[in-house]
Design a protein that fits this description.
Helices cover about 40% and strands about 20% of the residues. By secondary structure, it is an alpha/beta fold. The chain folds into 2 domains: about 260 residues, Aldehyde Dehydrogenase, Chain A, domain 1, CATH 3.40.605.10; about 180 residues, Aldehyde Dehydrogenase, Chain A, domain 2. The longest helix is centred in the first third of the chain and has 18 residues. The chain starts with a strand and ends in a 16-residue tail after the last strand.
């Protein structure tokens, strides 16, 4: 890509620049150079996309399940064939290394495959003769126009957590991706059009807060899905719910990994490095807190230090790169500032990512992996979601103290434990205050036929994303009671009862 590239909206399967003069800049995080400009929508452009989706819903909402599934199967095949191109787009604008981007695309494809089974997933129930000559049954129907607002850290996967299920259920969709890495969503829209998706069923509108607020306030948007920080998730939930919309807003995280003394410390160190520093720590399911129980702490620090020394921090174009840059200069500087504040608050900076060797251009948004030891719960590095390659380790005496940390933390996205004791694992599974639990694995992201979502301040709304909860979110249940024989001829004002 180069500076003359221009990313437009997609409305009715066509690139659409609109009349707004507002736009943003897209950077290559590995160099700091501008690679493209992206259109920013006003409420006018957003309304055009919603009206296109509303018009399309009048037909798509009654299109047969077989036809919808056929198109999704074609999309899945096109996406699989183009997965490398999608991953390259992700790497170019986000900065994550190519194998990480390929993994992201694969997890998105899994949700598309789940959505291809929509005929099985939306079946209702039927009860014959609930009363004499009367049957009762349930059906699930689409909502109408639904919208997704997605973050920069997974520009392919998170949109595919939303739109394949929504579209399969018969809804039409308006996507507002992150303005920091918008090209992936446009490419996905092109693949959907190539798969035969009718005009208006899937639309992409770029922008900032102006576009987001237009989505939340638009009377024809029936539901909103969001993934991002807790502060924004809460705001979106409150504003959209006040407007009468169905909302699922997934927020931030401070994922804990408890390490028991009986765990295999080599496996622990590998897991901590992979889950803490993969994608430069810019994952809502990244491990950001290690809780070392008893004697586990000293071994963990040394083993992580050994592994970090061999990590190659470099551009995604380097096939040997383990970790790339952070998404923006401002975000890199914010994450790096925690290295100073942690030391000032009394934590031990066991590994300083600012000293790590960088194999990339100096203008890139680089920060190597860092590790704090002897962190205390009152410190800002523990309380705040850093969202970068910074691990914090707390030391506790026993499992009770570790579990109390989890319970006291306001977030509840994911939590993991490493142990060789089955009783310990079962207790953790039962008592941990988190929506997704890992036992001897650090990133417990559910497969597509379960659902992804946290507890507490990591989720606003009552339904998780994709999987069975995704189907429930994008449909409404309707109960039908029908009688075709023995129709009564005598009027009665009594409440109907079964007989």
């Amino acid at each position: 890509m180069n500076v003359v590239d221009h990313v437009t909206h997609v409305i009715n399967n066509k690139a659409w620049s609109g009349t707004s003069e507002r736009h943003g800049e897209v950077h290559d995080p590995a160099t700091g150079k501008i690679t493209a400009t992206v259109d920013f929508a006003t409420a006018i452009e957003l309304d055009l996309a919603v009206q296109a989706a509303a018009t399309a819903f009048s037909i798509w909402g009654t299109t047969s399940v077989a036809k919808r599934t056929e198109i999704l199967f074609r999309f899945r095949e096109l996406l699989s064939a183009q997965r490398l191109e999608v991953a390259r787009l992700v790497s170019a604008e986000h900065g994550k290394v190519l194998n990480d981007a390929l993994g992201e695309v694969s997890r998105g494809i899994e949700v598309v495959e789940f959505a291809c089974g929509i005929g099985q997933l939306t079946k209702g129930e039927f009860s014959e003769n609930v009363s004499t000559g009367i049957d009762s049954y349930s059906i699930r129907q689409p909502l109408g126009v639904v919208a997704g607002i997605t973050p920069f850290n997974f520009p392919a996967m998170v949109p595919m957590w939303m739109f394949p299920v929504a579209i399969a259920c018969g809804n039409t969709f308006v996507l507002k991706p992150s303005e920091k890495d918008p090209s992936t969503s446009v490419f996905l829209a092109e693949l959907l059009a190539d798969a035969g998706l009718p005009e208006g069923v899937f639309n992409v509108v770029h922008g900032d807060q102006v576009a987001v607020e237009a989505i939340l306030d638009h009377p024809d948007v029936a539901a909103v899905s969001f993934v991002g920080s807790t502060a924004v998730a809460r705001s979106i939930y409150e504003r959209a719910a006040k407007a009468g919309k169905r909302v699922q807003a997934l927020g931030g995280a401070k994922n804990h990994m408890i390490v028991m003394p009986d765990a295999d410390m080599d496996i622990v160190a590998d897991a901590a490095v992979n889950a803490g520093y993969g994608s430069a720590g810019e994952r809502c399911m990244a491990i950001s807190v290690l809780v070392a129980v008893g004697s586990a702490g000293d071994l963990i620090v040394e083993k992580i230090r050994e592994r970090v020394a061999h990590l190659k921090v470099a551009p995604a174009t380097d096939p040997k790169a383990d970790m790339g840059p952070l998404i923006t200069l401002e975000h890199r500087d914010r994450v790096a500032s925690y290295l100073d504040s942690g030391v000032n608050e009394g934590a031990v900076l066991a590994i300083d990512g600012r000293q790590h060797k960088i194999d990339g251009e100096p203008g890139g948004y680089w920060l190597g992996p860092s590790l704090f030891d002897n962190v205390e719960p009152q410190m800002s590095i523990y309380r705040n979601e850093i969202f970068g390659p910074v691990l914090s380790m707390l030391r506790v005496d026993d499992l009770d103290e570790a579990m109390e940390l989890l319970k006291s933390n306001p977030y509840g996205n994911g939590a993991a434990i490493f142990t060789s004791n089955g009783s310990t694992a079962r207790r953790f599974q039962a008592e941990a205050e988190a929506g997704m639990i890992g036992i001897n694995l650090p990133i417990p992201v559910p497969v597509s036929y379960y659902s992804f979502g946290g507890w507490n301040q990591s989720l606003f709304g009552d339904l998780h994303i994709y999987g069975p909860d995704g189907v429930r979110f994008y449909t409404r249940a309707k109960a039908v009671t029908a009688r075709w024989t023995g129709i009564a001829h005598n009027a009665t004002l009594a409440f109907p009862t079964n007989n």
